[in-house]
Specification:
- The chain has 13 helices and 16 strands.
- It is α/β, with parallel strands linked by helices.
- The chain has three domains: about 120 residues, NAD(P)-binding Rossmann-like Domain (Rossmann fold); about 170 residues, Dihydrodipicolinate Reductase, domain 2, CATH 3.30.360; about 70 residues.
- The strands form three sheets. A six-stranded parallel β-sheet has the order 3-2-1-4-5-6, sandwiched between helices. A six-stranded mixed β-sheet has the order 8-10-9-7-11-12. A four-stranded antiparallel β-sheet has the order 14-15-13-16.
- A hairpin with a 2-residue loop joins strand 9 and strand 10.
- Helix 1 packs across helix 12, helix 4 runs parallel beside helix 5 and helix 5 packs parallel to helix 10.
- It is elongated.
- The chain starts with a strand and ends in a 25-residue tail after the last strand.
- The structure holds NADP nicotinamide-adenine-dinucleotide phosphate and L-homoserine.
- It catalyses: L-homoserine + NADP(+) = L-aspartate 4-semialdehyde + NADPH + H(+).
- This is Homoserine dehydrogenase.
Amino acid sequence: MTIIHVAVLGYGTVGQGVVESIHSHQKELQRLLGAEIVVDAILVKDPLKVRDIPPGIVWTTNFDDILELGHIDVVLEAIVGCEPAFSYLKKAIQHGCHVVTANKVMFAHHGNELQQLADENEVHVGYEASVAGGIPIIRSLSELLRVNQVHRLEGILNGTSNYILTEMRENGHSFEEVLADAQKKGYAEADPTADVEGDDAFYKLMILSDLLYGEQPNWTEVQREGISKVDREQMELAEEFGYRFRHVASIEPSSRGLQGKVMPIVVPNQHPFYHVDGVDNAVNVEASLVGSLMFQGPGAGRLPTASAMVEDLVQVLRPSLQRKGSKTIQLDEVEGGATKLLKQWLLFVPQNPSLPTPFITSGKLIKHKSGQKWKAILFLGDDKTIYEWKTRLPMVRLYEIRGAKEWKELNSDQPKVPCLNSLAF
Ligand code: NAP
Ligand code: HSE
């Protein structure tokens, strides 16, 4: 039987899962590919770490050793950061290898360049594992995109953040406890700051943007915020209003270009993300023909991520299965200028705040509740007002409410909120 030779870069959570899955699913792979898949080599960084590597696989800390084997067909990459991952994959492609990656930081920066190089060298690039863990979102969107136009995508794209929010809410654990648990389970990044400050979800959003629209928004214009400032009392007060916190990344074309956001928001029971708990990710797309589609599944961890990489392995070896996404974006078909629209917000103002006076703003107060540390306020305001509050009042926490029914009170004459620190609580 023909043999397909592969090398795996990185032997941590994901790399180990990939080697294990190739071995445990050898029969299925042989049926699909008509060939045996052999893992020949593994690349690691630390030469002194004790490892349990299956017999017959050589390991090295020098990538050139792998290329010098001369017969590697596919390089599966699961190491950390832009470099040296990008340089290794470039070299692999130039040597005629197909490449599959789970590395979103690298792919958000260099995905287009790698794909172009792969085209020139007549090989293929798989990157399913870089976004939304085990959910086959890249492939699904590529298929969907052939005719549909995606007007908006929003997603829970960081499994660690969703796991932390869920465990804090359901089991009352502290942020630090749950983060440590997420690290133990292999969900979190080597540096978990990327998970809890929104960077990981941001890179995934940029990869999706490239896929959907053939370009990325200007990175400096994408709001990027993580869950590190959400505390238990905020969650409890939100719950009293019927809302749950979710960390959501969203992208949509507008007449002002692509609008991307990565931040914690709150959602009501009727929102599709309300029931997405634990390490799950979810992606919701609004597309021209199919309407609203929701994908949900494990967003991180050894086997879900390995699943995405092994499915990619089959895909790169059977290129006839590959389909490219549309690279067109029709700005004239979408609405722009949404900054003046009034949106629903949940605000947390610290008890006894020392707010600057007078802080004049516009908008409408709907309801409020008091906790020990925070006053929680349901508020209707436009993006501009909220942006002003964010920059001028860093002690106030502001979360958009998405998917809630229109507030009835709005039809009556609500008082303007003249000054946040003069609100009577
Ligand atoms: P990990 O457990 O920390 O493992 C990283 C592996 O990469 C280790 O074996 C490490 O070598 C190796 N490595 C790091 N830098 C290297 C370098 N410069 N040269 C050679 N080897 C190097 O990380 P992971 O969780 O498996 O994640 C790997 C990649 O997959 C990351 O890009 C991550 O963002 C992505 N990813 C992870 C998940 C997940 O659920 N964990 C899901 C999707 C995507 P040593 O063993 O010698 O330290
Ligand atoms: N640290 C990432 C997460 C791994 O928690 O979503 C999957 O990309």
